[in-house]
Amino acid sequence: MSKRIEIDDDIYRYLVSHTQHIGESASSILRRLLELEGTATSAEVEPAVAEQAHGRTIFDTMTAADLAGQRSVVARFLYILGMLHKCHQQTFPKVLQISGRDRQYFSRSAAELEASGTSTNPKQIPGSDFYVVTNNNTTRKKSMLTQVALELGYDQAQAEKIRDFL
Fold it and tell me: Which family does it belong to (predicted)?
């Protein structure tokens, strides 16, 4: 059974700073920090994830604190895409295949995206030489994140979890 409690901002920041992976519950963090019995092992907590040659995935690279620092939907969208690029640099060019009915979603240049439709508002994906259109509603951005995750080798459940970060 879960209970709701209020905590001070500094304690919340401390708790978030000790998150080991996205989606880790406050109870799991506290159990680990307080060394209480019933602590879930990392094998029980970590989801199975798409593996790269270097073994990094977005689930073990991105922190909840970093994600929480992104103040807007567009900022979170770009941050998540940047983290996916960081983890999957070799396969990230697959995202260039993802497009809408009348619009290209990803490109290697802002000009190419601007030419593919009106009001595209292309932005560079942080840490990459890729650009993405950002003038879509949140539902479309979530769909794009799901498609990106699937292209990069995540399964459907993992892709949905990545989508829900937005």
Answer: Belongs to the SeqA family.
